[in-house]
Amino acid sequence: MAATEAAMASSSLSLEKDPAPVLESSGTAAATAATKPATVAAAATAAAAPATEAAAGSDAGDAKSDMANKLLSLNGVFAVHKPKGPTSAELLNRLKEKLLAEAGMPLPKCNKRKKQTFKIGHGGTLDSAAKGVLVVGVGRGTKMLTNMLSGTKRYIAIGELGKATDTLDSTGKVTEEKPYDKITQEDIEGILEKFTGNIMQVPPLYSALKKDGQRLSTLMKRGEAVEAKPARPVTVYSISLQRFQPPLFTLDVECGGGFYIRSLVSDIGKELSSCANVLELTRTKQGPFTLDDHALPEEKWTIDDIARALELCAALLPAETGLKKPKPDESKEQPLSCESISLSEVKAEGDAIQAS
Fold first, then answer.
1. Which of 61, 127, 169, 337 has its CA 20 to 30 A from that of 208?
2. Which H/E stretch holds residue 247?
3. CA 141/CA 133 separation, integer angstroms
4. How far apart are CA 315 and CA 320, in angstroms?
5. Spatial distance between the Cα atoms of 158 and 257, rounded to a whole number of angstroms
6. Which has the closest alpha carbon to 212: 226, 230, 233?
7. Residues of the chain scoring pLDDT < 70
8. Which domain of life, per UniProt (predicted)?
9. Phi, psi for residue 335 in degrees, rounded to 5
């Protein structure tokens, strides 16, 4: 009987141990069965990923292509807000780089022999120390920039009495100092009439005017001897004294092309038996474009913002300065290249047109 009980105990022990492997086997099978759909789904997802990425890449490519086409279709004239610091040419290059980057287009290497598709330029150079309205032409609008040179310009200039500089502004070396303590507001207002209307003006030595194909300012910086250009006729439509707080005085000037505010302030200082230079200069208007209403700040240098600005500015321009219809061959796509040109107006050669 003991043997029988031992056998039964052994059998019972066997029965208790055997189910464990069966359960493990069942669990493994279930896990495997559950894993198969997940594996298949993962494989399917992995297989679909390249197609999805390709589709996304295609959409991105299409978007870039659309922006490139939109950029190349821009034509007209608009205005940007130039800050103090960069030259007008440097600002134009910065604008061009931003637009090409947005359109997904590489910066082209300049080659005058290639016909370009994208052309951008500015008309009416502002000194690097000046800020304000800078008129920009894009596409066929670059051909309209000459009209901007002959148009009126308006400036707010802060002059400083008692100091003369070689550049006629605060960026230059002080060349002379004279007293100014006896100069009154009435004295300044009394001489402004002499600088109104059609007058003769000697351009600054530091200017965009050229000698033997090189800018006078470049020659001056090299230390080369430069003779002053002869006086030439310019037009001042209006000039008024806005504020006088010695040694500073603020002028509001509206003038024609080729006029130099630095020369005006210097001449005013001499007329007052003292000397003066420009401490700060802001162009508030050029042609129909004003600083407050039309000049785009840098954060709005986008293709869409410029397209809207072109539509707005087109209504401001006289009909005779409007865009001409493109020639048949101009509408055909051309390889993107870059062309740098510099044009000058005969009566206002200091106001360079630069296109690139």
1. 337
2. none
3. 17
4. 12
5. 20
6. 226
7. 1-61, 108-116, 149-150, 206-229, 319-356
8. Eukaryota
9. -60, 135
C-alpha separations of 112 from 91, 200, 341 in Å = 21, 38, 9
The position carrying tokens 């910066």 is 107
Q: Do 158 and 282 meet the contact criterion of CB atoms below 8 Å apart?
A: no
CATH of domain 153-286: 3.30.2350.10
Q: Tokens representing 139? A: 């596409």
DSSP, collapsed to helix, strand or coil, labels residue 156 as strand
Return the pLDDT at 64. Answer: 75
Convert the pLDDT of each residue in 251-261 to its tens digit: 999 999 889 99
Which tokens belong to 240?
């008024």
DSSP helix/strand/coil, 237: strand
Whether residue 351 lies in the annotated active site:
no
Tokens representing residue 47 in the block: 């297989």
Residue type, 147: N
Closest alpha carbon to 64 in 99, 104, 24:
104
Pairing of strands 153-161, 197-201: unpaired
Catalytic residue among 127, 169, 267, 351: 127
Nearest to 153 by CA among 42, 284, 262: 284
